[in-house]
Amino acid sequence: MRMTISPALVVMLGALGTPLLRGRARGALLVSLPIAGLVVLWVLPEGVGASFEVFGLVLTPVRVDALSRVFATGFLVAALLTAIYALHLRDSLQQAMVLVYAATAVGGALAGDLLTLFVFWELAGLSSVFLIWAGRTERSYRAGMRYLAVQVLSGLLMLAGIVLRVTAGEGLEFGYLGLDGPGGTLILCAIGLKCAFPVLHAWLPDTYPESTVVGAVALSAFTTKLAVYTLARGYPGTEMLVWIGAIMTCFPIFYAVIENDLRRVLAYSMINQLGFMVVGVGIGGAFGINGAAAHAVADMVFKGLLFMSMGAVLMRTGTTKGSELGGLYKSMPQTAVLCMIGAASISAFPLFSGFASKSLIMEGVAADHRMVIWLMLLFASAGVFHHAGIKIPYFAFFAHDHGHRVAEPPVSMRVAMALAALLCITIGAVPSLLYGLLPYPVEYELFTTPHVINQLQLLLLASMAFTLLVRTGLYPPELRSVNVDFEVVYRRFLPSAWHAAARGLTRLRARVGAPVRRATEKLWVAATRPLRPDGRVAVTWSTHLMIWWLVLVLGGVLLLALL
Amino acid sequence: MNDDRRWLDEPRNVTRIVYGLAALCALAIVADVFYRKKPHFGIDGWFAFYPLYGFVGSVGLVLTAKWLRRFLKRDEDYYDRPERDEDDD
Questions:
Q1: Which of A253, A407, A491 sits opposite B61 (nearest CB)?
Q2: Do B62 and A465 touch (CB under 8 A)?
Q3: Considering the domain boundaries, does residue B1 fall inside one?
Q4: Model-level pTM?
Q5: Residue B19: which domain range?
Q6: Average pLDDT, whole number, for chain A?
Q7: What is the ipTM of this complex?
Q8: Is residue B2 part of a domain?
Q9: Residue B33 lies inside a defined structural domain of this protein
Q10: Residue-by-residue DSSP string for A70-90
Q11: Please, what is the Cα angle at A330 between A326 and A333, to 5 degrees?
């Protein structure tokens, strides 16, 4: 048995040292931990590490194969970028939690058994909630509680599924789970919550935009992509996922178009991007799984970059509401350019990372001859360009100048954004760098003439549509408003139902209570009358009567005994 | 952080950009004639399928979303003061 060091433990234990250090030493620790994690990850040989038995169940905390390594690498790179982005903070709690949270995602991706996965699954929720609470306001406290409730619920569902598997004699091994296996549905529900399946998605746009400047960047990378990894490991080729994913790509873009808070727009576009990955897992096979993994890694970087740029805007102007922003390119030109690189990447412009990764999924869908799904994804591709590619930079940095005259964000934040942008362009220009990490060998020519031209046609005409709609005044203006989504169920309907039930009960007590009390009192008086001093039972009985009763009772007992 | 008028502040220049974009779009559509398509389905082999789909899809998306606002839009403090709203009804 070989001893193995887990990169997750390296980062997690190291992160606990953060509050002990100050200044440059703390910064050095923050940046060096993800790098150390990457080194450990890539030094580890493929295969399972040390395993041990607990209560007859085999635990394998570290398993390295191509699928787990590509996700873990993505998590550690995202952790490095987020750590650099967080360097300016004077809040060691947030800095430590960013790394602990990242480590839980790495640990989950490397988990060889379901119990280890469950532990990291729960730790991810528990550590990341601090990134929402770190806002230190009543509003962020409440959002954090809602977030935590969902994360814990997801964990409980997973635990229940694991227990079912173990009792069915399947053991703890984390391989293909499938819907037909014992506990398969429960575990899929647990993943569905964290992966923001339709209807279960509401927590994501509800709580992510409530987190801190740095928190949103970290949140955008880890929880949902860990869910995608778990899906790719446990449910590849599950037909249902193709449809779930396709719906996920389409419905959030309608919300994103009319949403005012630009970080919430990004949260919706995140569900849209997750949809592409879920479709990839659903079609399975080399293209599907490669596409899902590649897109997950690319998304960690470009979505992180977009959240970073909006974080910079939030930090400097105090808001990310489209209705209050505009014209920021004058005072934050560098952030504007970096944001647009992220926007081009998520929109899958040729030579940017999204093009390299999303094309694999589109190719997989096309090779499977699923035309309806393919048309849905193509529509969603045009849609994501609309809300994330154009809307975000346009309403933040251009559009109507709201007169914000602010400074660029601190250097460390700009460095993080620049590195993320560099990665987006590098992956986009030399996709083989990413393709080489994928679980299956990639036999795919990305830059073919038809593919590049078709993508440019789609995006150019989509931007023409945006331009025409804006210039004719048909484009819905940014309004100070919120749009109800499924979170209305737990934020309004359930509380109102609870209040209504409480009120109804009070009213019911007032209306029914008094008559019932009077009636019971009367009944009590009537029932106890024979026992009162002047009642029938209380008068002196004759011996004669007593003996008759005695005989009757004894006779009854005798009869029962004989029967 | 100077507050001079920028190039983009001039409406004429914005119009120029729009014309530039229109020219690019026209170019992209014309490009459809000059390469051999390898369609996966029948539909994506049609002339100008991608540009049309992108344009119609986007317009449809934005107008539908605008229409959905009628049902989905609420005040900004819709969730923040549920207690007060409870008292109202």
A1: A253
A2: yes
A3: no
A4: 0.89
A5: 7-88
A6: 93
A7: 0.87
A8: no
A9: yes
A10: HHHHHHHHHHHHHHHHTTT-S
A11: 100
